[in-house]
Amino acid sequence: MVGFILLPKGRNKIYYMEIISSTYHLPLVLLSIIIAIIDSFAALDLGIRINKAKGFARFIWLFGGAFAMGMGIWSMHFIAMLAFHLSIPVTYNLTWVIVSIIPAIISSGLALHIVSRPSLGTASVILGSLFIATGIVSMHYIGMEAMEMGASIEYNPFLWVLSVIIAFFASLIALYLLFDVSQNPKTPRIWWRKAGSALIMGIAISSMHYTGMAAAKFKPHHHQLSLSGPTFDSTLLAYSIGIGMLIILGMVFISTFIEKRFESQSIESERKFRSVIESANDAIILADSKGAIISWNKGAQFIFGYQDKEVLGKKLQIIIPERFREAHQKGMKRYLSTGEPRVIGKTVELQGLRKDGDEFPIELSLATWQEEGNFYFSSIIRDITERKQAEEKINQMVYRDHLTGLPNRHLLNDRLTQALDQANENKHIIGIMFIDLDRFKFVNDTLGHAVGDHLLIEVAKRIQACVGKMDTVCRQGGDEFIVLLPNTTSEDVTKSAQKIVDLFSHTIVLNEDEMFVTPSIGIALYPSDGRDIETLIKNADTAMYRVKEQGKNSFQFYTPDMNEMVSKKMQLEIGLRKALKRDEFMIHYQPQVDVNSGELIGLEALIRWQHPEWGTISPADFIPLAEETGLIIPIGEWVLYEACLQNKSWQNKGFPPVRIAVNISSRQFQQSNLVGMVSKTLKETGLDSKYLELELTESIIQDSKHAISTMHQLKEMGIHLSIDDFGTGYSSLSYLKTFPIDTLKIDQTFTSNIFTDLKDASLVDTIINMAHNLDLKVIAEGVETLEQLHFLQQRQCNEAQGYFFSRPISAEEMSTVFKEQFLSKIQ
Fold first, then answer.
1. Grouped pLDDT means (10 residues each) for the chain, 827 residues
2. In b/e form, how buried is each residue of 785-801, taking b as 16+ CB within 10 angstroms?
3. In contact, 91 and 148? CB cutoff 8 Å
4. 487 in Cβ contact with 437 (< 8 Å)
5. Contacts of 421 (CB under 8 A, 6+ apart)
6. Which burial class, exposed, middle or buried, applies to 295 when counting CB atoms under 10 A from its CB (0-12, 13-18, 19+)?
7. pTM across the whole model
8. Which residues are within 8 A (CB) of 291 and not within 5 positions of it... i.e. 6 or more apart?
9. In a 3-state reduction of DSSP, which class is residue 487?
10. What does the alpha-carbon distance between residue 571 and residue 552 come to, in Å, rounded to a whole number?
11. What would you report as the CA-atom Rg of the chain, rounded to the nearest whole angstrom?
């Protein structure tokens, strides 16, 4: 029989009994098992938290988890001890009780540390299980030693070993379950897995305890035992410890719950942040302090061509051109060692490298942050290829000539400004060449603007081939080019100019058409010819015009006296523009007669300019300027109208009707409204078209397609057409049989030399014969002597005009001539 004696409170003496009986308080047994299971569940949650935590947070969770889990195991053990009742009084040594807690906490910490590692090797599991089992066994048997009673404890070797084995396997099972749950927190139905795992772990831990208790045998002492400690109500203490432990575990659950909520919010925020990153068109790349890529969004995939699995863990050098990689590495090392942010926080333009090896321009915004003592870098990278192309296009539009690709005047001004600053500082010479193409307008007008554009492109290439790499060739506009030669000498400028002239001595072939243009080059030097942009270009332009005046196809340096001539030309142009409004023009008429009959058959209308200050200005001085400025068009229309009106006036007065000849310039002939303008003039003046003759130069009819159409329209109107100054042009004679021409006018240079130059006489004879064979009439200009008239009569020339008959006279004088019948002097 087992006997049990309860002593009144305060008694401190017990007496030996022969038999020591023991019982378990079932509610406390159940409480100990429940605490073991709940503690196991908490341990599973703690394993998940520790596995996710990093840095100092990991340490806090590990320390707190070890304490909570260890206290849970110890409380299960101590409650189970208190549930065990002996028939003799029992008290506990507080020191040994506290000591028993230490192995439980250490073994719990060890278990949580092992399961929080990335992998769980067999050897580490077995070794860990041994240490944990040792801790649990130590806790149990140290707790047993804390019992103070009138008996000694002996252990059944078999059951003792069995308890150790159970502790080992319980530790082994706990480690695997803890690791499985902590590594797979998002597994479906994880709560049920955790509950099942906690149940297994709790029962395993409880089994070890109760097996160890079963191994104990209590032998009574043969003497009276005096208990030094106070007696207590073991049941009440057990419940108190259980409640306290449940509170601690409750706090653990609350902490993990809060942590889960924060984690959930963090995950949600991260998910939103990730969605933003993934939806970005820019590449967003995260890298660690070693330059290894840890995050790679879809924008990066699109821009660089790599999938995330191809680059994660690899160095950033994979997207950096090889020539920049060393500088990139040095920059990272410098920042990590000094913290000096040279690029951090700024936006810079660099070159990127795609998977296919293509380089492209990128814009990089770089930032960094520190986490748990480690540096990380975030890069936002934008492909700026389209922007660069747009900038280049804008640059071409703003700073480049759209036709030739040469710098325009804006870019020239920028470069010339820089060159002037350097030349002023270093005492260097700057050369400016102003180039204008001779005869380009003729090519443009006759062959069309498309051909003219191709010609300008070829000219630009030739000029560039004649200058150095540091020189700038600019297209100023039209057929004008400017060459900037910094840090040069007058000798080098001369060589470059001569090289350009020589290169243009060769014809240019475009679409199998052979063309010939020459350059007129004016040169100004800094500082002798000007110290600013405007002055240098103006003086070079002035020198170029001097070349034009002296025969073209050459070059000349600027001299101060050139400005006086330019000033006169500018004044002449200003006066010319005002002359029409001020009625300063007048028309003189020169008779044209039949060389055989002496009959007056026509008049040539010749313009004269009577300036109120400068007096009479020769057509040779202002007609070329009118051609150059385009004023020849309104002036020509005025001459045609006044001549037709005057001729009609003479007819109205009863004078014999004659043809009036009016010169048409090349610029007038190229006007699309020429036929309409002539028709309108005849209509408004009332002159019959058969009394109007239009004199055309050879250069006008070289654009055969336009010329044929226009001339046929004029001819259909009944207008007489003649070729003026025949023999002085360069065109083919084939047009004589193609165009509807009535008359050839022999230039006065041939007529005046027929008795002094046999070649001129032969040319006049040949022109007359050729014209008659083509059924054309011939009129000779510049007849000044009777001998010249006889020569023309003998060669059967049809008509003549010149000072022998009359100088050009005013309309009033011409009216008098009509009256006096001055032709009687040749009869």
1. 34 48 75 71 62 66 68 72 73 77 74 64 66 71 74 78 74 63 60 61 68 74 53 60 66 64 64 70 84 86 87 86 82 78 78 88 84 79 85 76 85 88 88 90 77 88 88 88 91 91 85 82 91 89 86 88 72 84 90 88 92 85 83 92 93 89 87 90 93 84 70 92 76 71 88 85 89 90 91 91 91 83 48
2. eeebbebbeebebbbbb
3. yes
4. no
5. none
6. middle
7. 0.45
8. 315, 316, 317, 329, 332, 377
9. strand
10. 23
11. 58
Q: CA separation (Å) from 650 to 588, 640, 690, 768, 802?
A: 14, 16, 15, 32, 22
Q: Model confidence over 292-331: pLDDT tens digits?
A: 888 888 888 888 989 888 888 888 888 888 888 888 888 8
Alpha-carbon distance values, 429 to 183, 497, 534 (Å): 79, 16, 17
Q: What is the DSSP letter of 3?
A: B
Four-point Cα dihedral 524, 529, 531, 532, nearest 10: -50
Other C-beta atoms within 10 Å of 444: how many?
20
Strand partners, 477: 480
**Residue 269: HSE in the Cβ half-sphere, 13 Å Cα cutoff:** 6
Q: What does each C-alpha distance from 391 to 187, 299, 301, 693 come to in angstroms?
A: 54, 23, 26, 58
Backbone angles phi, psi at 813, to 5 degrees: -65, -35
Rounded CA-CA distance 7/418 in Å is 113
Enter the tokens of residue 302: 């699109």
Cα angle vertex 77, ends 75, 80, to 5°?
105
- Distance CA(192)–CA(181), nearest Å, equals 11
Identify whether the C-beta of residue 178 lies closer than 8 Å to the C-beta of residue 245. no
Q: In this structure, how many other beta carbons lie within 10 angstroms of the beta carbon of residue 349?
A: 12
CB-count exposure of residue 536 (10 Å: 0-12, 13-18, 19+): buried
Which CB contacts under 8 angstroms, 24+ apart, belong to 390-393?
none
Give the span between the Cα atoms of 420 and 433, in whole angstroms: 15
Nearest to 86 by CA among 241, 227, 205, 204: 227
Q: What is the greatest pairwise CA distance in the chain?
A: 189
What's the burial of 744, exposed, middle or buried (CB within 10 Å: 0-12/13-18/19+)? buried
Instruction: List, as one string, the DSSP characters of 669-719.
Output: HT-TTHHHHHHHHHHHHT--GGGEEEEE-GGGGGSHHHHHHHHHHHHHTT-
Render 749-779 in DSSP notation, one character per residue: HHHTTTTT-HHHHHHHHHHHHHHHHTT-EEE
